[in-house]
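for ur thesis appendix - HTH-type transcriptional activator RhaR. copy paste whatever u need, i formatted it the way the template wanted (i think)
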Amino acid sequence: MWNVLLVEDEAFVRRSLKQLVPWEAMGFTIVGEAGDGQEALAMMHACSPDLVITDIVMPVMDGIELMKRAKEEGLESAFVMLTCMNEFEYARQALELGASAYLLKLSMNVQAIEDTLSKVRRELVRDLLMRSQSLQQPFQQLYRDIWQSIGEGEIADHRLQIDEEGGLDDRFQSVGIVSFLHGPDRFTLEKFIEFGMVSPGCRSVVHAYSHFGQTTVFVWNPVSFLVHANHNKIPWPAVYAPLVKRSELAAAWGHVLRTLDRNWYEGTTSLIQAADTTDKVTSASASLRWDTEREWIQSFEQHKPDDFRSRLQVGWKDMADRRFPMAVVKETALRIDRILALISGGSGTPEEDYTSCVRHEELGLRLLSSAERYANKYGEDNESLTGHPEIDKALAHIRRHYHEDMTLKSIAALVAMDEAYFSALFKRKTGVTLMHHIQQVRIGMAKKLLEQTKLPVAEIGDRVGFPNANYFIKIFRRWTGTTPSEYRSRGN
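the 3d part is after this line
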């Protein structure tokens, strides 16, 4: 809702305006009335109206002077002027000062007023978004810092600095927060404004911060927040925190996100208030144990689809029981997808297919479906055949078990050959020694993990069969001429 201040020294004109117009249906609400410009100026400081509808000729302070004083004092309200036919020169001056429109009092009709309000509403949306955009950068850094601290389980106060002196810092004292779980649907601030959750006021700013199919909206210094919300217009699950002090922003956002996680698991669809409780929740920095992920991957590599499906379902239920944050679950699914795609030689599932999921079960089914697709591809023999069945068997074993400890002795035993004979035969058929081939496979997989995941270097080394990080770095440099960290940074 947009806030309106009516300024008119004739009470019957104010009454007529209030009765003629379906204000709320037009998206406006009247927050005050004044009989002259001086009284109106004081009320503007108190309630920061988005729109001032004012007579021009009034006692004490006229409408033109009110506009001038409001601008001088930093009040950015829109103005619509009320005038008589013989006051047109005043109306012209008002338009030059930036008034949105003027209405002739003697010929006012509902259609003329509604047309004017529609025009003003579009201007108010435009001006709010422009004002918010002009302050986007420092706020976005603040949101990123808080998101990271919530992810690390350390909700702390974050000071908002707009300029070096902090001159604008004290302007932003209160903030309303609401998070939406919209999945693949496009979210815009224009759509949020249409929900009628906020009466902005001429000094407020509105920002959005999006991550993995959820968007949080921050409304700074609103006149009112979630007072006029039209729940029927909100198509997604949403959680809000009432207006809070700036110093409480991080804690309030944390409560909103943890409450939104309940929608992820329980499937509620309404607009609800964030729970400021000590309910059992898992830190946003939580992650599955690596040995759990390893078991999933090993089942996949060993062509055990039933075992993979069973382990995945158990792990998915465990995340639900422990209430892993939604963002962590989506990051886990995306990481597992990328690893299975790398193993199978397939193309990874588009990231938006995972980030768009709005239910925990839905995401698990999506990952299982992708895994089955990769398994079908993995079942195909993508390795160039050497024409020798024992060597082909050894190559297939290396491709599927590259992360395990392998020696010449163990591989020769696998194909029931003498070690020396097998070693010579392997080099003759492939052009490289057995150990060099194993290293090539491991380094090739490590390069893909470095390119497509954010896993730590030491963990990548362990995943591809180098439990000693220093040895992994040494072998990686030997084959690529650079360290794993340098390789990753060059790729970015």
